[in-house]
């Protein structure tokens, strides 16, 4: 532990001690990879982990700086993070450099962006982990890939994604109503739920869920949705 001021002094000078001839991401990635190797050596995650976009607020000069008014930091550096769901501990980070983003070398160059991220970020993980992510990543191709890796996946679903029950797209639910979808020959369970304050259904797919509900504050909802809300806090 050390003071905030010491952290700020280190933070604002650490990127100026690299290779003086480095350009682009080569100025940044060697330092980030060194930090991440230390992170991964000191802590191995519990069973549940989450993968999500992580934005770093930044208004300086940066070729890949992005603007999104809906984000807490409108001008930001886009990264993707793998975190332990119980503690929030950061296990791996992937900085977005556009077409020059450093995916795992074995990744299919023509593969989907979501699969590339899930091939790269969970590298420190063994089998049996439960991964939580949002609808940006959830595709049928990704879920099948994770099952092959002997891991589990739970995430929200965009209604226009292929490979999920067609009934979900035009499903009309009353407030607090829920419906489940599953096939006997597949390991994926889908649920649609309409909360009282929501304008549209919440749809979720999971390879580690059962048809079960939980009651919270007089509201009965699917257990998998309640679990997702807690585990994504990482």
Automatic annotation (TrEMBL):
Pfam families: DDE_Tnp_1_7
InterPro entries recorded: PGBD
PiggyBac transposable element-derived protein domain mapped to chain residues: 3-233
Domain of life from the UniProt record: Eukaryota
Cited PANTHER family: PIGGYBAC TRANSPOSABLE ELEMENT-DERIVED PROTEIN 4
Protein name from the UniProt record: PiggyBac transposable element-derived protein 4-like
Gene source species: Plakobranchus ocellatus
Lineage, broadest ranks: Eukaryota, Metazoa, Spiralia, Lophotrochozoa, Mollusca
